[in-house]
Specification:
By secondary structure, this protein is mainly α. The protein has one domain. The protein has three helices and no strands. Helix 1 packs antiparallel against helix 2, helix 1 packs parallel to helix 3 and helix 2 packs antiparallel against helix 3.
Length: 104
């Protein structure tokens, strides 16, 4: 029971970190949309792209950790929660890797 609890606690921490990263990215996108000076638009976009790449790398690392947890899942319910979380993180990563910008 304590192994499952530990795995779920780490899963909770992982999902909290991903949530924080996504909220920060959303805030950066919002601020980037407020930039109107042409010379600053490219810099703002580059900064958002750099952070997006950081989030994608972090997701990749967290997916590897979840894969490791899956091989050591304490019980069926924990395994199911880990699988669902892994699938959600994969979809988030796929979404973030898509081209996001339309020309202004």
């Amino acid at each position: 029971m304590s192994v499952a609890y530990g795995q779920l606690e780490l899963l909770s921490i992982t999902l909290s970190i991903v949530t924080s990263d996504l909220l920060a990215l959303a805030n950066m996108l919002t601020v980037e949309e407020l930039v109107t000076q042409e010379s600053n638009i490219k810099r703002a976009r580059a900064r958002v792209d750099k952070y997006r790449a950081y989030v994608v790398r972090g997701l990749s690392n967290r997916l590897k950790t979840l894969e490791n947890f899956l091989t050591k899942a304490a019980d069926a319910e924990t395994g199911r929660l880990l699988l669902d979380s892994r699938d959600a993180l994969k979809e988030i990563g796929t979404f973030l890797e898509r081209p996001a910008y339309l020309p202004r």
